[in-house]
Specification:
Elements: E1 28-29, H1 42-56, H2 73-87, E2 96-99, H3 102-113, E3 119-123, H4 128-136, E4 140-144, E5 146-147, E6 150-151, H5 153-165, E7 172-175, H6 189-201, E8 206-209, E9 234-239, E10 251-254, H7 257-266, H8 274-314, E11 328-332, H9 339-348, E12 351-352, E13 354-355, E14 369-373, H10 379-397, E15 402-403, E16 406-407
Parallel strand pairs: 1-12, 3-4, 3-7, 7-8, 8-9
Antiparallel strand pairs: 2-10, 5-6, 9-10, 11-14, 13-14, 15-16
Helix pairs in contact: 1-8, 2-8, 3-4, 3-7, 5-6, 8-10
The protein binds pyridoxal-5'-phosphate.
């Protein structure tokens, strides 16, 4: 029997900690940004795949099909049309770059903008995938306060002034204006205007991440910052992960050419998956409206189920704002609870959630917070999972005292 070869001596230096092997999904899966399995439009995708392969299949013979490195022309045209109809601005398809998800688009932007030691302003609670990767590049994160309207323009102005006084010009401001992750706030138009004005006054680019914007229940959504006058310094990022499928890996960025040209120079993946782009373009052109309407209905029902279950199991111990869309609930528990310490015993009982500190620029400000994604689990699983979570939380931290009208531990 030959011995296993030891590769470690040949590895590069400064690698991250090795990944753990995937052990399958937990029974009560509230983590990450998964979608609703019953919301995947399977028949529509089958029809689109057949149609588009017959019509355009031969273009799979070349890298980037017949469309060049920015991505499938038909998909970029769909995106340009959708942004015109629903986000308030009409980019040309030459301003759009399709990427394998919006996270890769963000990572290209970090590569374009960041050197170690640079400063980035992000919302105090924000997308963990962005915060972690910005930190990894050796950049310093400064957290701007949020309120029920999203990023606070007055606090942003204070931070920018303080940075200026210290001789620092932040490289960019990262914001999620429409259904903020994790707080689910929607920034009103007036606030967007203020953020635009203050960022422009200090000459700092804005990355607006609108990957949840399609999932607002209310049809009267505020247009994106990129749609507003004086937004030449705004880079707009979006994704198909949240309103179609995260597994398909399709996202996009809309940016002025000097930024796109740098991103393209760094994008070395041989092109974003062509079949995924073609099928999604063909499907979405015909079905965006009915698909998104049906998905939103499903998600809203799940949100209501989660809220009902929390009321029943946690009572007043779980504080949260009711999300106006999207897939997350951001919950504050009593001070006694440390959600990072709650995660392991909860997982041992099959309940997975995201502890607050991972979603915070300053982890210490979110030790009693947690984020639940309600899109993936069924309504039955949501109910059982919340009951299980309450049970574990009571056992570990004595919270909630009562639930389902039963004094716990009695
Ligand atoms: C705010 C935000 N941006 C970007 C992403 C990345 O998504 P994807 O790479 O699947 O498009 C996520 C995923 O959860 C997110 O919440």
């Amino acid at each position: 029997m030959s011995e296993a070869f030891d590769f470690h001596g040949a590895f590069a230096q400064n690698l991250p900690a090795p990944a753990a092997k995937w052990g399958g999904f937990p029974k009560y899966n509230f983590v990450g940004g998964h979608n609703d399995p019953d919301g995947i439009p399977i028949d529509g995708l089958i029809e689109a795949a057949e149609r588009v392969l017959r019509r355009r299949g031969q273009t799979l013979a070349t890298y980037n099909m017949d469309s060049g490195p920015q991505g499938d022309r038909e998909l970029r045209q769909f995106l340009a049309d959708k942004m015109k109809k629903y986000r308030g601005f009409a980019p040309s398809i030459d301003e759009v770059l399709v990427t394998p998800g919006s996270n890769p688009a963000l990572m290209l932007l970090y590569d374009v903008f960041l050197n170690p030691g640079d400063t980035v302003i992000a919302e105090e609670f924000s997308y963990a995938g962005a915060l972690g990767r910005i930190r990894k590049r050796g950049a310093k994160l400064v957290g701007a306060k949020l309120d029920d309207k999203g990023l606070r323009a007055d606090h942003l102005a204070e931070l920018l002034e303080a940075q200026k006084k210290a001789g620092v010009k932040p490289k960019f401001i990262y914001t999620i204006p429409t259904i903020q992750n994790p707080t689910s706030t929607v920034m009103p138009v007036e606030r967007r205007r203020e953020i635009l004005d203050v960022s422009r006054a200090y000459g700092v680019p804005v990355i607006e991440d609108e990957c949840y914007a399609d999932l607002l229940w209310d049809e009267t959504w505020p247009k994106s910052m990129r749609a507003m006058e004086g937004s030449e310094h705004v880079i707009h990022v979006g994704s198909f992960s949240k309103y179609l499928s995260p597994a398909l890996r399709l996202g996009y960025v809309v940016a002025p050419w000097p930024v796109l040209a740098q991103m393209l120079a760094l994008k070395s993946d041989g092109g974003t998956n062509a079949l995924a782009q073609m099928v999604v373009a063909d499907f979405m052109k015909a079905h965006y409206d009915d698909h998104v309407a049906a998905l939103k209905k499903r998600l809203k029902r799940k949100r209501d189920t989660l809220i009902e279950a929390l009321h029943e199991q946690f009572g007043a111990a779980a504080e949260f704002d009711v999300p106006p869309g999207g897939i997350y609930l951001w919950i504050k528990l009593p001070e006694a609870v440390d959600t990072q310490k709650l995660a392991a015993p909860a997982l041992a009982e099959g309940v997975a959630f995201n502890p607050g500190p991972e979603w915070a620029v300053d982890g210490a400000t979110a030790t009693r917070h947690l984020r639940l994604c309600y899109a993936y689990p069924s309504e039955q699983v949501i109910r059982e999972g919340v009951a299980k979570l309450a049970e574990v939380c009571h056992r570990e931290f004595g919270v909630p005292l009562r639930s389902a009208n039963v004094a716990r531990g009695a």
